[in-house]
Inverse folding.
């Protein structure tokens, strides 16, 4: 159930960040969903890494989830202080590289369609973070494609599966 909760907010923040990148939401307004989603992901991190029953697997998952929380808080911070985002771009490269072994480990051990889908999400998120690196750190002119990939990734990897998990349909 916690995965559905987390993915639901990942979907919301990615969908809205995609709209923001398309110019449909103002900079100051996008701060709210990024802070809320950062708090949701941060809560999952605290519960997974330090809660009752924490083990090596939950600590690993918490470390990976913290990459999401850090990204959301960083986006919010950048909108409040109006910086160019290069630091977030370089962080995005670090995260994109990190997603490669996570994807490979997940896909090699997947035994169900849901596990294949979860592993594939890491590949999609890795591509997305790499696009943020290209856009923010290197200044490549890929704003519009990055916006659309963000928006679609929000639906496919977050909102829809999160909603289905919360409803017990997945």
């Amino acid at each position: 159930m916690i995965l559905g909760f987390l993915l639901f907010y990942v979907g919301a923040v990615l969908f809205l960040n995609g709209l923001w990148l398309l110019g449909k939401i103002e900079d100051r307004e996008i701060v709210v969903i990024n802070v809320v989603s950062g708090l949701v992901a941060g809560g999952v991190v605290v519960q997974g890494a330090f809660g009752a029953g924490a083990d090596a697997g939950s600590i690993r998952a918490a470390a990976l989830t913290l990459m999401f929380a850090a990204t959301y808080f960083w986006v919010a911070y950048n909108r409040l202080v109006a910086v160019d985002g290069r630091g977030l771009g370089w962080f995005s490269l670090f995260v994109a590289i990190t997603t490669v072994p996570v994807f490979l480990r997940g896909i090699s051990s997947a035994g169900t369609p849901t596990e294949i889908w979860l592993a594939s999400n890491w590949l999609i998120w890795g591509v997305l973070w790499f696009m943020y690196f290209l856009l923010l750190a290197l200044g490549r002119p890929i704003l519009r494609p990055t916006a659309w990939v963000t928006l679609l990734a929000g639906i496919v990897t977050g909102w829809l599966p999160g909603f289905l998990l919360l409803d017990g349909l997945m």
Observations:
- Helices lie at 2-21, 27-50, 56-81, 86-109, 113-137, 143-166.
- The two ends are 10 Å apart (CA to CA).
